[in-house]
């Protein structure tokens, strides 16, 4: 008898095993790369700004002494106009005294990206110009959009809710425009309501839910208690969670709707234990997009329990704990520009404006059709502080990107988790993949 | 049959191979050389005796040390202490800090002109190449380049500097006389390292996110060849080329492939890939011993360096250093 099968030649078996072993070895380590610059304090940010000013002055003096003059014979720079459009919203009642209400989400990301584009533009004789438009509460958004298009803007980056995304995309004036959605996570916009002139640089709810689900399933925490808030966004997030549970093999053991209308800051310790009693689960998943009660579930449940979802461990495109892959540099740059931390909407706006710059540079053209084709084509590749390039899904215009899983003060993991395989791109295990897409966009 | 037996058998074979690798160590016959490795997260430099293949000393240098080079006569070690926003200079003999040089913010990689005096420094978060006079210890110029400059290469005679910028995705060719950019060449996404070959005829540029190596003509800057790496069993996205070293006989080019945990060996004449050498985790920077018998790689995640026998193209030993080894220089 023999331990070894005679029908399999030994050398090839060795090779296969070695390849598998090495592959797994390489794979298991490839997410661990770190960048390590620490975050600047506010004082350091100010010192740096002052230092930059001083250096700029010295630089100018040196150049003057050297007699450097601007070249006059170069042709005028090619202009690429990008718009950032948003509308004021009613400020919701304060639910936490910790976080300021942001009324400027997105625009700082767009500004930094314009700066990046223009640095490249200096060398290619291109000039990127950002038009920032904020429509007042009750103002005419459609008119503002039309005016931008009439002014030559073919790339319009928007921070607007889903209904407005559709309203603008369906205008006749928008047919030869690309709209970049930086804030509406609605899956319908990527499926039955998708539009050929809309790209989504913000992850969909399905992508976020899938990113979280992969991690929880990998940890074998598969029994979930889903608590959903009263809002429409909450309901949609809960839908995405249920879809993810189904997709990755987790179980929703119990589902409850939280519809307490009172501010629960003072009463959470009394209300939450009763609300969460008599449920057997591994993880409580909360769907509370406005942040009305999610934070107050943590530490107040009947059983000692983990909380994830819109609060607790959150799936997100960007987070202040993110420092890998050069992100620490971006965090500091953003804080110098905006005086606050970068959000996912800021990041999405940065990606949108950078996408235009990258496509113009690579396609060597400012022609709208060529730029659009390049962005959705196989050659597009943008480095966006996620360790791998970000690209767009041609079938629905959604950005492919890794999703961060963040606790308030540490980055816990980055999805997709390597155990979930995909024939084309691992990142396509997040959200609606091509075969299940209900979007009729030709690709 | 039990699969575990198969596995054990394979491991035994691997063991035999490893033992064979070690036995070739003594025949490598490298002349005594010393390697200095920056440990990004430990704020230290590890000193390795390449004869004994062991760490002989670890010295504190300052915050977030990354790029590391030596002066022409090998008496001083220059370290980019990035979070201190300056260059720390060590005495190569005593390993004590002698002085600091101004660098501008966040210095990452740098290169010393053959004049031994002019130091060109890439300021990662400032879109600038800072020029510092190391004798007068002052900044003499700043050259605006693309976003997140990093790679710094120079022609052997020092006439031309090539800097790559990670977010702009360009190689900027800078005249070292006028400090003006004379050419900008688009390369693949997130270029990390650029290096001229010994006679200045070719420039090698790696792109980390693009996953490619581009070899350009040193004069015309036209693309000679673009190499895309493919390794069976390794995901495309894990192949992230960073560090490059070329042997002076023009035979080999070595390219560190980041989280693919391998070094690609390239025929420097035909620009064909010869093989991949498995090293530690997240391999970034490389250095050759003066006799070019050994190649050493810094492996950031496994916290070690791998020593490779250049003649046999085989890894012979991994040596544990500090946390997140980043840069490396070997004393002549």
Give structural notes.
The complex is a heterodimer of chains A (443) and B (332). Chain A folds into 2 domains: 76-90 and 99-203 and 319-401, 3-Layer(aba) Sandwich (Rossmann fold); 207-316, Rossmann fold, CATH 3.40.50.2300. Chain A has a 5-stranded parallel beta sheet with strand order 2-1-3-4-5, sandwiched between helices. In chain A, strands 7-6-8-9 form a 4-stranded parallel beta sheet, with helices on one face. Mean pLDDT of chain A is 88; it is low at 1-36. Chain A is built from 11 helices and 14 strands. Chain A has helices spanning 10-29, 42-66, 107-124, 141-150, 162-169, 205-218, 232-248, 268-275, 327-338, 344-363, 368-375; strands at 78-87, 126-135, 155-159, 178-181, 198-200, 223-228, 251-257, 283-287, 306-309, 314-316, 391-392, 399-400, 403-407, 410-415. With 443 residues, chain A is of the alpha/beta class. By secondary structure, chain B is mainly β. Chain B has a domain at 29-232 and 321-330: 7 Propeller (Methylamine Dehydrogenase, Chain H). Chain B is built from 1 helix and 28 strands. Chain B has one helix spanning 3-28, and strands at residues 34-39, 44-49, 54-60, 65-70, 76-81, 86-91, 97-102, 107-112, 118-123, 128-133, 138-144, 149-154, 160-165, 170-175, 181-186, 191-196, 202-207, 212-217, 223-228, 244-246, 252-256, 262-267, 273-278, 283-288, 294-299, 304-309, 314-320, 325-330. A 4-stranded antiparallel beta sheet of chain B has the order 3-2-1-28, with no helix packed on it. Chain B has a 4-stranded antiparallel beta sheet with strand order 4-5-6-7, with no helix packed on it. A 4-stranded antiparallel beta sheet of chain B has the order 8-9-10-11, with no helix packed on it. The N and C termini of chain B lie far apart (55 Å). Mean pLDDT of chain B is 90; it is low at 1-30. Chains A and B meet through α1, α2, α3, α9 and α10 of A and α1, β11 and β15 of B.
